[in-house]
Specification:
Number of helices: 2
Structural class: alpha+beta
CATH topology of the domain at 61-180: Immunoglobulin-like
CATH class of the domain at 61-180: Mainly Beta
Strand content: 35-45%
Helix content: 10-25%
Radius of gyration: 40 Å
């Protein structure tokens, strides 16, 4: 019995082994590169908010003020501030919000125009707004009020940053701007002709 060795069969087997070996090396190299690229991606940190909204109550949160012609009631007074979480500094002009109710106690109709606020320290000295702060100390009403009539609405004005510092604010001065609506008429007659 003679075994014939066929030269092409042996070379096919060696070529197949060689291709299989190259394929394994290529797969290992591709996996190594993929793992390397995935491992080298930048790590991204998720940061929390850089600003925080803080609400502080005014003490007392409600007040009743009697003037010569009006009764003014303020309630739910709160200061809203936006603070940088890292430095704890106020980043926007704080706002003072609440509810205002105005009653005409006079015997005449009064034309209410606006309510303005001034912020004072304990010595009754004005607390000014700093340069760059938004100044909105007026709340418009534009309402003619009959005797005994009540008007109410929201109060939304700004307050200086300095007033929000510890024990800086002592008093708030409220100015009710109005025009007495006692109208008098004087009639004059002018003689004219069209020619």
């Amino acid at each position: 019995m003679t075994l014939l060795h066929h030269p092409t069969e042996g070379s096919v087997t060696k070529k197949g082994e060689h291709r299989m070996h190259l394929r394994k090396i290529f797969i290992i190299l591709a996996l190594s590169l993929a793992i390397g690229f995935l491992g080298c991606t930048k790590e991204q940190k998720v940061e929390g908010p850089k600003q925080e909204r803080i609400t502080k109550n005014l003490v007392p949160p409600k007040a009743e003020l009697k003037g010569q012609n009006f009764l003014v009631e303020l309630s739910d007074l709160k200061v809203f501030m936006t603070i940088d979480t890292a430095s704890k500094e106020i980043v926007e002009t704080p706002s003072l919000r609440g509810h205002i109710k105005i009653t005409n106690k006079s015997k005449d109709t009064q034309d209410v125009q606006a309510v303005t606020l001034e912020y004072l320290d304990e010595d009754r000295k004005p607390i000014p707004f700093s340069s760059g702060e938004k100044v909105a100390k007026i709340s418009l009403f534009l309402k003619a009020m009959k005797p005994g009539e009540i008007t109410e609405g929201p109060l939304d004005v700004t307050i200086p940053r300095m007033a929000t510092k510890e024990k800086a604010l002592g008093k708030i001065e409220i100015n009710l701007v109005y025009v007495p609506a006692i109208f008098k008429r004087e009639t004059m007659i002018l003689s004219e002709k069209i020619e």
